Amino acid sequence: MSGEISAADGALQRGAGIVSSSKQDIIGELNSIQSQLSSIGSSWQGAGAAAFTQTFQAWQEKSRRITNALDEFEQNLRDSQSAYTQTDDTSAQSQNKFMGRLG
């Protein structure tokens, strides 16, 4: 059927690879931003610096949550592909047994 989504032919595995690659790109960007922002905070003093540090730490935590969610999503795709493949293999074995009985 046209437009149907299928897990066949490693589609979920390819999706997991795309998520992984995108996550690495995001991590690279986050590390670059973090490097730039930490140099700003190191020379700053006073209440503004404390507020900046607190905000920066919250940003780092949110960034970790995003990358952790991407890790989980990637693993879920890989697990789904494995489950799909296992179910498909089991179904094929059952069909082959049935065909063997029919002679």
TrEMBL record:
Signal peptide: none
Gene3D superfamilies noted in UniProt: ESAT-6-like
Ranges of compositional bias, category Polar residues: 79-97
Pfam families for this protein: WXG100
Top-rank taxon: Bacteria
Transmembrane segments: none
Disordered: region residues: 79-103
NCBIfam families listed in its UniProt record: WXG100_ESAT6
Family note: Belongs to the WXG100 family.
The protein, known as: ESAT-6-like protein
Source organism per UniProt: Microbacterium foliorum
